[in-house]
Write a structure and sequence with these properties.
This protein has about 140 residues and is α+β, with helices and mostly antiparallel strands. The protein has a single domain, classed as RutC-like (60s Ribosomal Protein L30, Chain: A, 2-Layer Sandwich), CATH 3.30.1330.
């Protein structure tokens, strides 16, 4: 674990991640750097899916960093048991799974093939601070 990794800054009264035994649960992570929201607004029907890649990756990276902050020396995340991808989507948007694949891709880059258990890609009417995306995950530690 790298203690020098930039940790997400909670936007309310909660922890970024909490550990119970060999599981870590993250809070909802939006695409923020140093507490500032970088990507906001609706995912629009007519925009290319690729235009949301960086927002998804940043939110996912924040979730990874929060989870890894719960590890002690010589521990690692072995599997993501559950990944939830919440999309601030415009009415009529139906490509949720394709946008969520950007989160899955980053997790595979970090933890290897077959690292993801279950996943949900969920369209919502709004997200905190009008964020484009919010990610939560449950990770198993080994």
């Amino acid at each position: 674990m790298n203690k020098n990794i930039e940790q997400p800054i909670p936007q309310g009264k909660y922890l970024s991640a909490v550990r119970h035994a060999d599981l870590v649960y993250t809070s909802g992570m939006t695409p923020r750097k140093a507490g500032s929201l970088i990507y906001s607004g609706k995912i629009r029907v007519l925009d290319p899916i690729e235009s949301y890649r960086d927002a998804v990756r940043l939110a996912t990276l924040n979730a990874i960093n929060a989870a890894e902050a719960c590890l002690i020396e010589d521990e690692r995340i072995s599997v993501i048991l559950q990944l939830n991808v919440f999309l601030n989507a415009q009415d009529g948007f139906t490509e949720h799974a394709k946008v969520a694949d950007y989160a899955s891709d980053l997790l595979v880059e970090n933890f290897g093939d077959n690292c993801i258990g279950s996943r949900a890609a969920i369209g919502v009417a709004s997200l905190p601070s009008n964020a484009t995306i919010e990610i939560t995950l449950v990770a198993k530690i080994s």
